[in-house]
Structures are given as structure tokens and as C-alpha cells.
């Protein structure tokens, strides 16, 4: 528990000196949205045109964010504490049933409704960030492969198939989609079938094989549900979902094993999860010691928070119109240990704010195409409390369009982090247990 206290209360959590300002600076980016009609964006905005009329000098665009990850590397690698010492009893109060029925009952929103949502840009932004992460790791895998090698992907907790297009565009060869919510899996399968029938008619789109099944990935060994149980995966992607498994050690371990066991050496497990340190940092600064939030998101703790337990650190998460169910903090050092036990070596961990900053150069055009930022003219919106950061950013005002997120959306999206683990080679000991080579 000492480890928990230390790692949830590292230096950055107490240091809020420059955090807010830098976060605001980072939030506004010149995307070169130059008063053009929405439908023209794709064609009109190239990387070059961005730069020519850019109201923000390059060096200001990538302002160093001092709100670095709150957790020091030494804490992460610390050997004290961890799953072995903190064996928790599995919790059986039906959280997963609540989660499953929440997602099963979630209505599919139409394009019009989505556009009217207060979090439309944040959702697009998150989707863009996922596509950057997926593209980065697929590229790494492809770089190790020979031409014609298969690319097999597990979309763990696939939801309604929000990432199907990304898989299609990446030319993968086989996709496994699974989720606890049956309704979502059915919708995902339907979307896939529609996509494939479009591909039949197009000479450009590529086809890939697939399998779909609903199950609780924190209880079931997924391998046993695969058509080919000896299948080797190249990528396991678990987007905005892994944290549900941190209800108990047993569930987290089952989920990690599902992510790891069929990955071939050199393959990756990538995920986006809530950043427990950031959540705890905000909680410590909150006037309400059990709750944080703003107009679009709310987190209400229903567990001890001083310190929270390693597993079962439960909170009720509400995100405007999309999520309203129990979630669990992921104690990152514990996740790293569980992953190592299953041959997964941490290769990357970055807050959304940092990953955004890093991906922007390469992903700018796609960010524009996906409407991942709202087009705002600072002089017109500077008085709006949701866009006050623009006043700080453009001290003398500006009448040129910039892309940004509202303060509330930025606060909600920066609750998350990205992480990537690489599957290591192994030999076997004389009891038949794998011995991983963590170079
Ligand atoms: C926020 S949604 C993300 C869906 C999708 N990955 C995406 O990025 O669009 C979280 C998903 O995790 C699924 N989920 C939660 N707990 C799960 C579990 N124990 N086993 C499998 N899926 C689970 C939910 O049903 C839901 O579809």
C-alpha cells in the first residue's frame, strides 16, 4: 500500500504551478482551418497551407508541457508491492453485468445527433488519437514482416466496431472482435458485413476475414473461443476498456493473459486507459474529496481514496450521453508487473496531451479530416469561459481561425493515457512454464 500512496502522489500531483497554462497552450493548435466550408476541408488543407498562414509560431505550437506524467519511471519499475502481495478477492457484486447492460442499452446515435453533442469534437479527437496509436504500432509490426505476411488483429472490447475502418485501411488479413455487450458485437458484425460488401464493389478496398463473439474477457480464456486455437496474433488493441478489468486481480490477470498469450514475439498490445495518477491529482485538488468533473464528465468515487486499493478502486464514470457506469482505476505499476508475467514488456506510456503533441506533425491532415478540433476565431469566442484559454494564448487577440477543444472537452480527454507493450520471445523451463527474454 505504501507503493500505492507514493505512486499516486508523486511530485507533479502537488505541483500545479504551470500545469494549467501549459495545458491551455497545448490545447490550441493552428490547424489552418481558414474560414472554409466544412466540405472543403479535405481538399483545401494541406500541411503546407497550414504553415503559410499559421498564426502560431512553430516553436509555440509544441510548447513543452511541464505537466509530465505524474509517475516517475522509478516508481513504475519499483519492485515493492504489486499483485503478488496484494491478492484481492474477486468482487462479485455484478459490476460487469452493469457494464454489459449499460453498453447493450446504449443507442446507436445518428450522424445528426452526434454533430449536436457537446462532446462531438472530443469524440473525434479521441478517435483520431486511437488511429495514430494503431497506425504507429501496425507500422512497427509491418517493418518486421516480409511482404505477404499475414496481419492478424484482436480488437479486445471492440464495442460497436468504432475501429473497423482503421483495420480496413491498414490492410489487415484477419480480425477477431469480442466484447461483453452482445448487442454491440452484433452491431460490429453488421458493420463489418456492410463494409465487406462495399469492398466487393470497389476495386480499392481490401477484404479481410473475421470472427465475432460476445464474452467477458475478464473471465473467459479467449483463445478457447477462437476458430483456430493455435492462431498467432500480431496486434491486440484494447481501446477505452482495459480498466474495467481492474475490478480484481483475477479479472485483471485474465484480461492480461488474453491480451498476451496469442501474440507472437515482436507483436504488440496497445491500449488507451484512464490515467489513474491524473485522476488522483485532480481529486486531491478538488473541493469535493470524492468527486471531480465538469459540465461533460463526472467521476464519483465509491471506494477508499486515501489511498485507493490496487484493485477494485471503483468510481462511477459519467460522460455526457455516452458512458454512465462503474469503472476502476488502473494502478499502472501493477499493470506493468502483470504484463511482464505474461511476457509483455512496457514499451510506451504517454498521456493523451503528450501523445497528441507528438502525433500532430504526422497526423495533422487526418485530424482536420476527422474534425478532431473545433474551428474557432479567438476574437469571437475569447469571452466564452469554455474558450478562455484562447485569450491566454493569443494575448493580443486574433481573427484567424484555429482548431481547439473547449476547456471541458480538453479536461475530459486528458483523463486518458496511451500505452504499448511488446511481446517477448520465450523458452520453456523444465516444468513447461515460459521463461521470457526481456532483452
Ligand atoms: C468505451 S467502450 C470502447 C469500445 C471500443 N473499444 C472503442 O474504442 O470504440 C468500452 C467497451 O468495453 C466493453 N467491456 C467492458 N468490460 C468488458 C469485459 N469484461 N469484457 C469484454 N468487454 C468489456 C464494453 O462493453 C464496451 O463496449
TrEMBL record:
GO molecular function annotations of the record: mRNA 5'-cap (guanine-N7-)-methyltransferase activity; RNA binding
Enzyme Commission (EC) number: 2.1.1.56
Keywords: Methyltransferase, mRNA capping, mRNA processing, Nucleus, RNA-binding, S-adenosyl-L-methionine, Transferase
Pfam families listed in its UniProt record: mRNA_G-N7_MeTrfase
Region described as Disordered: 1-91
Catalyzed reactions per annotation: a 5'-end (5'-triphosphoguanosine)-ribonucleoside in mRNA + S-adenosyl-L-methionine = a 5'-end (N(7)-methyl 5'-triphosphoguanosine)-ribonucleoside in mRNA + S-adenosyl-L-homocysteine
A GO-annotated cellular component: nucleus
Main subcellular location: nucleus
Residue ranges constituting the MRNA cap 0 methyltransferase domain according to the UniProt record: 117-424
Enzyme class: transferase
Binding-site positions, mRNA: 126-127
Composition skew (Acidic residues), residue ranges: 74-88
Binding site for S-adenosyl-L-methionine: 130, 157, 179, 216, 239, 244
Cross-referenced CDD domains: AdoMet_MTases (cd02440)
Site (mRNA cap binding): 160, 166, 191, 243, 327, 416
Localization, UniProt: Nucleus
PANTHER family, alphabetized: MRNA CAP GUANINE-N7 METHYLTRANSFERASE, MRNA GUANINE-7- METHYLTRANSFERASE
Similarity field: Belongs to the class I-like SAM-binding methyltransferase superfamily. mRNA cap 0 methyltransferase family.
Name listed for the protein in its UniProt record: mRNA cap guanine-N(7) methyltransferase
Species: Bactrocera dorsalis (Oriental fruit fly)
Amino acid at each position: 500500500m505504501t507503493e500505492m500512496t507514493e505512486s499516486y502522489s508523486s511530485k507533479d500531483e502537488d505541483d500545479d504551478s504551470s500545469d494549467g497554462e501549459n495545458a491551455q497552450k497545448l490545447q490550441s493548435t493552428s490547424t489552418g482551418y481558414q474560414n472554409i466550408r466544412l466540405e472543403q476541408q479535405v481538399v483545401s488543407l494541406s500541411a503546407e497551407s497550414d504553415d503559410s498562414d499559421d498564426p502560431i509560431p512553430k516553436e509555440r505550437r509544441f510548447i513543452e508541457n511541464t505537466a509530465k506524467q505524474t509517475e516517475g519511471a522509478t516508481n513504475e519499475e519499483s519492485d515493492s508491492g504489486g499483485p503478488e502481495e496484494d491478492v484481492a478477492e474477486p468482487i462479485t457484486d455484478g459490476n460487469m453485468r452493469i457494464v454489459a447492460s449499460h453498453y447493450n442499452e446504449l443507442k446507436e446515435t445518428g450522424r445528426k445527433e452526434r454533430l449536436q453533442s457537446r462532446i462531438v469534437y472530443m469524440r473525434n479527437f479521441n478517435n483520431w488519437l486511437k488511429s495514430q496509436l494503431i497506425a504507429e504500432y501496425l507500422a512497427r509490426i509491418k517493418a518486421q514482416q516480409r511482404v505477404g505476411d499475414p496481419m492478424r488483429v484482436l480488437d479486445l472490447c471492440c464495442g460497436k466496431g468504432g475501429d473497423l475502418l482503421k483495420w480496413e485501411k491498414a490492410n489487415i488479413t484477419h480480425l477477431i472482435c469480442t466484447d461483453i455487450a452482445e448487442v454491440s458485437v452484433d452491431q460490429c458484425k453488421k458493420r463489418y458485413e456492410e463494409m465487406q460488401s462495399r469492398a466487393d464493389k470497389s476495386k480499392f478496398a481490401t477484404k479481410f476475414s473475421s470472427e465475432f463473439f460476445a464474452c467477458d474477457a475478464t473471465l473467459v480464456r479467449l483463445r478457447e473461443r477462437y476458430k483456430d486455437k493455435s492462431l498467432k496474433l500480431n496486434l491486440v488493441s484494447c481501446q477505452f476498456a482495459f480498466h474495467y478489468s481492474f475490478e480484481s486481480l483475477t479479472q485483471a490477470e485474465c484480461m492480461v493473459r488474453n491480451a498476451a498469450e496469442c501474440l507472437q514475439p515482436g507483436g504488440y498490445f496497445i491500449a488507451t486507459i484512464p490515467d489513474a495518477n491524473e485522476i488522483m491529482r485532480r481529486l486531491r485538488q478538488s473541493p469535493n474529496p470524492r468527486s471531480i468533473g465538469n459540465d461533460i464528465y463526472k467521476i464519483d468515487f465509491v471506494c477508499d481514496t486515501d489511498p485507493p486499493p490496487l484493485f477494485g478502486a471503483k468510481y462511477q464514470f459519467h460522460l455526457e450521453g455516452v458512458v454512465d457506469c462503474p469503472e476502476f482505476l488502473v494502478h499502472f505499476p501493477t499493470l506493468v508487473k502483470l504484463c511482464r508475467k505474461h511476457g509483455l514488456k512496457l514499451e510506451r506510456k504517454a498521456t493523451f496531451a503528450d501523445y497528441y503533441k507528438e502525433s500532430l506533425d504526422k497526423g495533422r491532415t487526418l485530424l482536420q479530416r476527422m474534425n478532431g478540433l473545433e474551428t474557432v476565431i479567438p476574437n469571437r469566442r475569447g469571452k466564452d469561459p469554455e474558450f478562455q484559454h484562447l485569450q491566454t494564448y493569443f494575448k493580443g487577440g486574433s481573427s484567424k481561425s484555429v482548431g481547439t477543444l473547449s476547456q471541458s472537452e480538453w479536461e475530459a480527454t486528458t483523463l486518458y493515457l496511451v500505452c504499448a507493450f511488446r511481446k517477448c520471445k520465450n523458452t520453456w523451463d523444465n516444468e513447461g512454464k515460459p521463461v521470457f527474454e526481456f532483452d
